[in-house]
Amino acid sequence: MKQHHRTVWLSDIHLGCKDCKADLLLDFLKYNTMDTLYLVGDIVDFWALKRQFMWPESHNRLLHALYQKSLDGTHVVYLPGNHDEIIKPYANMLFGKIEIKKRLVHTTAQGKQLLVLHGDDFDGEVCLGKWQAWLGDKLYDVLLWLNRNLDHYRRMRGFHYWSLAAYIKKRIKKANEAIARYRDATLKEVARNNLDGVVCGHIHHPEIVEQNGLLYCNDGDWIESCSALTENAHGELNLCYWTTMQPKLTVVSMAS
């Protein structure tokens, strides 16, 4: 059975990257409809494509499915990130029926005003330095390699997807400190603009947190978490983890 949402936020899909969970997102789109769909950056990974061109048929089907949503009446807005930054110069233009924006303010059914943007703007306030950033990238590549091989092993034995990378990241102190700095940086921007909260992606860490009266929502990614942020007709926000190819939701809710 399909589930309808007032709004859905998706980010960090990374089409063109070998770790993209395109099949799981296709399954999510099959069972979920929405009035508005925000594509919050890093939808296509041009960095990965430049390193090694890889575009499986499932990535083509996913790109078509996202565009088809706009043809079927969903209001689709694309807010490019850093991995698809070549799209940024086309802000305030239309790609077919898809709007392109750098950032915007979304008003929920409860009247809350949320800043929506990818979040790479705040990298300067989070990074520890060039050497540490380089080392972090290399360690993350190793984590994704382990994640990919474990997922293959589990699928061979009939188990659903589970992210080793996300599990390990949650237990690394430096990673948690960087996430906290990122959250603080985004909420400073919210406060500067007299808004109620923010929806972003970028750091592949889905969560809904209320901090100092402001709402921080990260919709996660489709590399590790396979997560989406959703808003229902009452303006309630949920995190949906679509880690099995089944028509069901696992949600973490934020009380209104």
What distinguishing features does this structure have?
256 residues; alpha/beta; Purple Acid Phosphatase, chain A, domain 2; 6 helices; UDP-2,3-diacylglucosamine hydrolase activity; metal-binding; Metallo-depent_PP-like; cell inner membrane
Instruction: Return residue spans where pLDDT drops below 50 for at least 5 consecutive residues.
Output: 128-135
Number of separate structural domains: 1
The CATH topology: Purple Acid Phosphatase, chain A, domain 2
Provide a count of the helices. Answer: 6
Q: Strand order of the main beta sheet, please?
A: 4-5-3-2-1-11-12-13
- Structural class by helix and strand composition: alpha/beta
Percentage of β-strand residues: 15-25%
